[in-house]
Amino acid sequence: MLKDRRRALQALLSDPDPGVRQAAATALDAVEAVADLDQLLDRLKRGARDERIAAAYALERVNVAKVYPALLAALQSRDPDLRLVAVQVLGAKKHPKTLGALARMLNDLEPGIQAEAARVLSGFTDRRLPGYLAPLVNRGEQVALAAIETLGVLAFPEGEEPLLKALVDERTQVRRLAAEMLGRLSF
Fold it and tell me: How far apart are CA 131 and CA 112, in angstroms?
C-alpha cells in the first residue's frame, strides 16, 4: 500500500503544474514519515535530546493512532523543550482524546509551555475550556495573553467573566487584548 502511494506521488513530482508538485511533495513527505514510524518512535523514546525533539516534530506528519501514546508520554519528559514540542504537535493534530492531557499542561512549571498549551487549545471546541483558561488570566503576561486570545478565538459566552476581569488588569497589553477578544464572543 505504501509503495503504491509513494510511486504515484513520485510520478507527480514532475507534473507541469507547480501546485500539483508541491501537493505531491507534501504528501510524499507524510507517506515516508509513516514508513519510518517505528524509527521515529524509537528516536523519540531513546534518542539524544535533539533526536527526540526532531522525532516529535516529524510525528506531526504521521496520521496513525500509534503516535499518540508516544507524544502523550513526551508531555511528561523532564526536558521542557520536548514537552513544548509535544504540546505543539498534539495541538496541531487536534485529536479530542488529547484535550485532557493538553489542558493539564496549563499547569506546567514552565510559563512558555503554559502559554503554548493555552494557544493550542484554541483548536478544540470543548465548552469547558473557558473554565480551564480563566485562572491563567492572573498569571504572567505571556500566559495571560495566550489565555485571553484563546478565549476570544473560542468565542464561547463562558469566556465573558475572565475577559471582564482582565479589562481591569494593571497590564496595558492584557486590557487591550481582553477588550478586543470580548468583542469576539458569541451571545
Answer: 20
